[in-house]
Design brief:
By secondary structure, the protein is an alpha+beta fold. The chain is built from 16 helices and 14 strands.
Amino acid sequence: EDVVPKYLIHVACADRIQPIQRFAIAFNRESDKYRVVIDNYNTYEDGTDSFALLKNDIAVGNIPDVIVCGYDFDFDVLDRQGLFRDFYSYMDADGETLNRDVFLPCALRPFENQKGELHGLIAGFNLVSAAADKAVLGGKTSVTAADLLSIAEGLKDGQYLYALRMYEDEKPAEMLLEKLLTLQFDSYIDYKNAACHFDDGDFADLLRLCKTAPVLNLAAMDMEDVSVSTLLKNGDLVFLDLPWFESPSSYLQAKYYDFAESEMVLTGYPTVSGNTCGTVIEPAYRYTITKTSPVAEGAWQFIKRTFGTFEGDRFNGYSGESFSPCRPVLDSVFEKESRRFYSFSEWGWGCSEGSPEDDLDKLWQETLEQCAMSGEIPGHMTAEDEAFLRKLLDSVTSAAHNDTEISAIIKEEASAYFAGAKSVEEVVKLIQSRVSLYVSEVYG
């Protein structure tokens, strides 16, 4: 009779389960009304992936209260079924704890649907970007496909615009197109108005760029003999790919080590206007609350608990760190970075960290002396670096995603151009027609 009955919250994990287990244990110990039960779909038994298993359960009516999914999860497929609740309704009723103003705009706006609702709340993210030497860019801080075409045309033999990792039958043109599309889908498709604009001239330039730009295959290189940093310093590579830009240290590694002998400009990837931010956001995890859940309020309480006290009791990303979508956490991260002193090498970085009471000038001097002996490069986040990163996070407006149906259409038609069977004008016209029809049917 001493056992208090609790309402069960079923949380389906369609990706890494370890962080959720930790938060569930903490929540269950604290809540006198709810208990989280984790349903683990992160399995590949019999060749069935997590999304297929979860989708099958939902189809027969076994719908969880919360779904936690990663970047690769095909979220849009379930969202189009009207399965999820709007997080804004909870934020707006929540007062000061976890309202809209607590979150960075880049963690909310890129993930809104056609009605301006937020059906998926991200819990951590990294940025995806690219950087180049200021001298190569001619004063530009962002680029279009036409800008990159111009740069590529001026390269000499043995120089490369991008470096990608490709295997076996993968072709540079198709791989580059796939990468750039994933990072800039929003540049060509207006989901809110069920329209697309592949025929405005920019996409034709993008196809020309992918067909002609020299791309270095990293998989075919012996990276023990030459590093990407060496290629950049020698002028053999123009753009440094930053696919795991997950913390200030990622930025500092690129600035102080990869571009140690030049001035780095973070352009991101080509955009249509050339004036918008070319850096995109890639969520580490995303929460949803299903409309059929009888314990939706408890589900929201659990999700709030995973954001903790904004002091580190939060999601960890791909390699132990990720940007938090919450401003209070970001503030604490930058405060911590002000006390960190790095030593960079081609193998990564090490750092020493002082407490608020330590003599930071002394720690910096010790770092300089250690780097002088080891041959490593010292680095420290300056006030200028912090201001740049804060401005960058406020400037990001697009999220990396891949619409598999649209990608298949584009890949099919573009392959004819890459093979020389059709002109770029013919291919663009076909893509515009086919994707317009698909978008109007699905999103109209």
